[in-house]
Amino acid sequence: MFKLTFALGSVLVSAQLLAVPEANIERYTVTTERSFYDDTLARIFPQYRYNQRDIGSPLHINDILLQSPSVSLNGQGGQLQNINIRGFSRWRVQSLVDGVPVVSDRRAGASIGFVPPSLIDNVSVVPGATSTYLGSGAIGGAVNLHFNSVVEPTIQIGVSDNQNRREISYADVVDDTDWHIAYRHAGNGEDANSRELLDGFEQTSFFIRHRSQDSDVEEAWTLYSHNRDIGKSSSDFPTDRITVYPSNTHWLGKLRFNIKSQSDDSENGLEASVWWHRNTLETNTLRPEKRINTSDNEALDFGASVGKRLMVSEWFTHWQLQVNGREGVITDESEFSLPSASLEYAIRTLDASELTVAGVLDASRSFNSVSVAAGGRVDWQRQSTDIADVVDAKAVTNANVSGFIGTSYAVSSRWTTSIYLSSAFRNPSLTERFFSGETPRGTVLGDSQLDSESATNTQATVFYADDQISGSLALFYQDVDNYIERKTVRDNAGNDTEILQYSNLDSAVIKGANYQIKWNDLNDQWGVQLTGAFTHGKDNHGATVADIPPHNHRLTLHYDAKQWRWFSSVIYRASKREIGDGERELERVVTLDIGAALQLTPRITVNADVQNLTNQLFYSSADDKAAYAQGRTIQLSATFLL
Question: Is the whole-model pTM more than 0.85?
Answer without folding.
Answer: yes
